[in-house]
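Page 42, continued from yesterday. The earlier attempt failed because a stray header line got pasted into the input along with the sequence. Redoing it now with the clean sequence only.
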Amino acid sequence: MSEDSRPASRSMLERILGDRPVALLVKLALISLLVGVIMAIFGFDAADLVRGAVDAIHDAFRDGAGVFRQIAEYTLAGAALVVPIWLVLRLLRGR
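This time it went through. Structure tokens are written below.
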């Protein structure tokens, strides 16, 4: 059924999900597969990500400063890549 021939009123579930449930499941499965492959290529493990999130929450309850310390570390690590790239792009655009 094409987009134009679909009825104007969508079901409550479609309105909540934004798409037909089966189509959404297929899209999410394909995106998940792609992200999983990319994570495997770069050596990331889903369990490590979950463990890191749990540790961050644990640190937040143990001492609030631990969360801010981690946020600062992540920000500095990201800035070490983002700022030089931004600077080079900014200089190249100026010419």
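Notes: The chain has two domains: 1-44, 46-95.
Reminder to self: strip header lines before submitting.
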